[in-house]
User: Fold Branched-chain-amino-acid aminotransferase from Sphingomonas xanthus.
Amino acid sequence: FDDRDGWIWIDGKLVPWREANVHVLTHAMHYASSVFEGQRAYGGTIFKLSDHSARLRKSAELLGFELPWTVDEIDAACNEVLKANGLTDAYMRPVAWRGSEQMGVSPKGTKPHLAIAAWEWGKYFKPEIAAKGLRLDIAPWRRPAPYTAPVHSKAAGLYMIATLSKKHADDRGYDDALMFDWRGQVAEATGANTFFIKDGQLHTPTPDCFLNGITRQTVMDLARRRGVEVIERAIWPEELEGFEQMFITGSAAEVTFIRSAGPWNFEIGDLSRQLAKDYDDLVNRRLNT
Ligand code: PMP
Assistant:
């Protein structure tokens, strides 16, 4: 992914894509002192940009470092990257980390850095697979307890269990994985939140040990606007048998239908389709906020 044309913003400057490098003795690479964002631009407008920039700052703060760029400055840099690369519909990846100024577990003496890249990225899942609904593996790893890690930070370190679970799913021919939390409750997919439908009501697990996704919050609003009751609560795997529909949400994944999760099967019903359409209309500015 490093050998292509384009411009990447690093610490205030645009540099050619191939030259956007960091040193091997970067604190983040050894000790996971890195946080990131993922957002999409639709027709030249980055959806909920300031929410993403604010979450990036918050994620860093939860790891004990402050970014010397304000939300407005990060927003402006994201727009600059989009323009510099001549993109209107793109995925964007801001990433912030502790640098190579010092080596050792102590972060003292390291400086915060920020890079922002953007590239064309169609659907997160292949459209022909997503159209039928994904098949989810049950992840062998669980989301950690809030007292063991800063679980509300979009921290690279927390993606170790996501990449392991995704690989486990890939190796077994599944499209993604459903992760439980340390209590055994339903948590999320490897890069998206989860929703279930039963009797016209929307159920979603309480985000007390995983990200309260920006897409998740958006879809909950869209559902309420349609008069759908949204129930946020602890969901146990045994209950999955009784749900009729399931989908996942994320800035990259958008609204993606699920056909099965482990032994549990779902249908792609009208409400799932309606909410996916509402989300698509909203991000493409065909729906008023
Ligand atoms: N959970 C995880 C682990 C994720 O990586 C993402 C994607 N950022 C989400 C949930 C959904 O978050 P959002 O809707 O803000 O993109």
Observations:
- The first helix runs from residue 27 to 31.
- The first strand starts at residue 7 and ends at 10.
